[in-house]
Design a protein that fits this description.
- The structure is a single chain.
- The chain is mostly helical.
- Helices cover 66% and strands 0% of the residues.
- The protein is built from 3 helices and no strands.
- α1 runs parallel beside α3.
- The longest helix has 24 residues.
- It is elongated, with a radius of gyration of 13 Å.
- The N and C termini lie far apart (39 Å).
């Protein structure tokens, strides 16, 4: 991911209730990925998190 794409990543993840700071993005492995790959990977993690939380809430 390029420096100028960090804000796009942050804005996109906010849409999925997954807040990030610029520093967190810079310190993450997502900086070594393309923006599209980083978003796809993180969305997968968010969906998995949401599924787990939904399962726990049911029990």
């Amino acid at each position: 991911m390029k420096e100028n794409e960090i804000a796009i990543f942050i804005d996109t993840m906010e849409d999925y209730n997954d807040p990030w700071t610029e520093e967190e993005v810079r310190d993450s492995n997502y900086m070594s990925m393309s923006l599209d790959d980083a978003i796809a990977d993180r969305k997968s993690c968010v969906f998995m998190r949401d599924d787990i939380l939904a399962t726990v809430a049911i029990k």
